[in-house]
């Protein structure tokens, strides 16, 4: 298992380098001068040039990139243009809120998607199956920012059951988690249904039924475990979708996570904060993919044997 994990870690290095190159290039193409933004509109051209010199913006692009890459390795993403604080410090300040929201949204998605997918597969073409398929299509088609607004109007404004926005206890987490997790629940539900249908048609499932096992044992002991790999794949990929969707969801619900932090930084043209936040989210995404690969090897030893 150690060799398997180390090989997967080595494969992540070029991915992270590619992400850093894309982020750096996009920030270079973004209109605006960081030095002028930091000093304000009243700054003289001489002061702006001195600030550009201090920030290293007058150096060749490749030199700036290698300094940027070295900063990533040492967890030095620079300092915020707005207040001069270290970007990594500000990211870690907002990280717990984002992780809390992402985890809650994934719990909502799995709690809805997996059971509904299993029931749909075991009752194929039934009324429940058709209803869940339509529901999954609707859930997948709804943008999370629109769903966020609808949930606020219905449950916070009209019914007054839940707070409109804010950060605090569980009551503040319900609406953002549902808004963020609904689309992922639809994806997980469809994948669970498809994977379970394929497994339920297998010979060993017919053998298990012929041996006299109960239908519950056949489904949850034999079929579900063998159907888990595609489901885990979707769950791992959807973590990146949730981190992406959290940007708008946090902005709508005034949730103090990295997403809202990035939106504020984009509005203020705080380039170091945007770069650092995007790279950190990308790092979280690739680490989740690594965890998914490890789970593959745990569930199916044949995958682990390929790396021996």
TrEMBL record:
Transmembrane stretches, start-end: 9-29, 101-122, 134-157, 169-188, 227-253, 273-299
Primary localization: membrane
CDD domains: TM_PBP2 (cd06261)
Bilayer topology term: Multi-pass membrane protein
Keyword presence, GTP-binding: no
Gene3D superfamilies: MetI-like
N-terminal signal peptide: none
InterPro entries in alphabetical order: BPD_transp_1_N (IPR045621), MetI-like (IPR000515), MetI-like_sf (IPR035906), Opp2B (IPR050045)
Keyword Transport part of the UniProt annotation: yes
Sequence ranges assigned to domain ABC transmembrane type-1 in this UniProt record: 95-296
Localization per Swiss-Prot or TrEMBL: Cell membrane
UniProt KW keywords: Cell membrane, Ion transport, Membrane, Nickel, Nickel transport, Transmembrane, Transmembrane helix, Transport
Family (UniProt): Belongs to the binding-protein-dependent transport system permease family. OppBC subfamily.
Subunit record text: The complex is composed of two ATP-binding proteins (NikD and NikE), two transmembrane proteins (NikB and NikC) and a solute-binding protein (NikA).
Protein name: Nickel import system permease protein NikB
